[in-house]
Design a protein that fits this description.
This protein is mainly beta. It has one domain: Crystallins (Gamma-B Crystallin, domain 1, Sandwich), CATH 2.60.20.10. The chain contains no helices and ten strands. A hairpin with a 3-residue loop joins β1 and β2. The structure holds calcium ion.
């Protein structure tokens, strides 16, 4: 499945390097539901994001806890964040992309 350049793109390392995880459309996602690597070194995307690019049409909110809870921060649409803000490296646990059916808390 391609990673569209209009999608939310999460990277495990700074400067858009390492593995990539993409989300299109709207909704809330818990990052521990997504695998960065498989057996025998299973690791999820929880507490892994170190850089990201936001979709071209939607702001994105990142959360330090699951289910769009905990400390949060909203980021502008269509922007490249080559590093995380202070205290945000390797702590993101859920993400929210707003839309017709999704209001980000
Ligand atoms: Ca990382």
């Amino acid at each position: 499945m391609p990673c569209y350049d209009t999608a939310l793109r999460l990277y495990e390392d700074t400067n858009f390097s390492g593995k990539i995880l993409c989300f299109v459309g709207e909704g809330i996602a818990n990052l521990d539901n997504y695998r960065r690597s498989g057996f025998p070194f299973y690791r999820s995307w929880n507490d892994a994001v170190s850089s990201f690019r936001t979709p071209n049409l939607a702001s994105v909110t990142l959360y330090k806890d699951r289910n769009a809870s905990g400390v949060r921060m909203r980021f502008s649409a269509d922007w490249d964040y080559e590093t995380m803000p202070p205290y945000w490296n390797d702590v993101v646990s859920s993400v929210c992309i707003p839309g017709w059916n999704t209001t980000c808390p």
